[in-house]
Design a protein that fits this description.
The complex is a heterodimer of chains A (about 110) and B (about 120). Chain A is built from no helices and eleven strands. In chain A, the strands form two sheets. In chain A, strands 2, 4, 5, 6, 9, 10 and 11 form a seven-stranded mixed beta sheet that branches. In chain A, about 35% of the residues are buried. Chain B is mainly beta and about 120 residues long. Chain B is built from no helices and eleven strands. In chain B, the strands form two sheets. In chain B, strands 2, 4, 5, 6, 9, 10 and 11 form a seven-stranded mixed beta sheet that branches. Chain B has a four-stranded antiparallel beta sheet with strand order 1-3-8-7, with no helix packed on it. Chain B is globular and about 40 Å long. The chains are: A mainly beta (about 110), B mainly beta (about 120). At the A-B interface, strand 4, strand 5 and strand 10 of A face strand 5 of B.
């Protein structure tokens, strides 16, 4: 199975900060990576797919990059609505999908 | 407009079998490329993918609880059903169903349903 390792697990930041979250796969996933945002008590919301494609309706301050085994989610200027938990997910394998452990972005 | 909603018991006893139903609208599970998956999240913990069924009845399971899981679909009722046997307190979680199509990830999710396993 492909393992996904996210870092950091918690991130303290202020409104307006640039924030970067990293996700590492145990083997190449050829950019088949998604990023989700989850608010407490809510279902995850898709932000980024195919490593760098912005989902329709998602603000442009969110961006994704990476290839092979290393991927990043960047929020260019953190807004109050962005304080949430973020998960990466690999969907390279047709038969198995795995999520990272999550990164909680909290107010500094 | 695609919507999904999970339903089932909120409380099950250890060793019992859990049956959850995902009722959806806005798409058909007979359309080529479409899939419905189940993902769970224990309180305060990360998301865990469990199972997925495709339009052609192809089924995929997580290796972890694989032997305990069964996923089926009822195309006429617009439902996908997950069965998990031999429930344990560690299976306490919010269970989500989600939609995917083609080479996209899960882009529509249900609201989730909390299942507690306790005697």
């Amino acid at each position: 199975d492909i393992q996904m390792t996210q870092s950091p697990s918690t991130l303290s930041a202020s409104v307006g900060d640039r924030v970067t979250i990293t996700c590492r796969a145990s083997q190449s996933i050829y950019s088949w990576l998604a990023w989700y945002q989850q608010n407490p008590g809510k279902a995850p919301k898709l932000l980024i797919y195919k490593a760098s494609s912005l989902e329709s309706g998602v603000p442009s301050r969110f961006s994704g990059s990476g290839s092979g085994t290393e991927y990043t989610l960047t929020i260019s200027s953190l807004q109050p609505d962005d304080f949430a938990t973020y998960y990466c997910q690999q969907y390279y394998t047709y038969s198995s999908w795995t999520f990272g452990q999550g990164t909680k972005v909290e107010i500094k | 407009q695609i919507t999904l909603k999970e339903s089932g018991p909120t409380l099950v006893k250890p060793t019992q079998t859990l049956t959850l139903t995902c009722t959806f609208s806005g798409f058909s599970l007979s359309t080529s490329g479409v899939g419905v998956g189940w993902i769970r999240q224990p309180p305060g913990k990360a998301l865990e993918w469990l199972a997925l069924i495709y339009w052609n009845d192809d089924k995929r399971y997580s290796p972890s609880p694989k032997s305990r899981l069964t996923i089926t679909k009822d195309t006429s009722e617009n439902q996908a059903v997950l069965t998990m046997t031999n429930m344990d307190p560690v299976d306490t979680a919010t269970y989500y169903c989600a939609y995917k199509t083609g080479d996209r990830p899960f882009d529509y999710w249900g609201q989730g349903t909390l299942v507690t396993v306790s005697s």
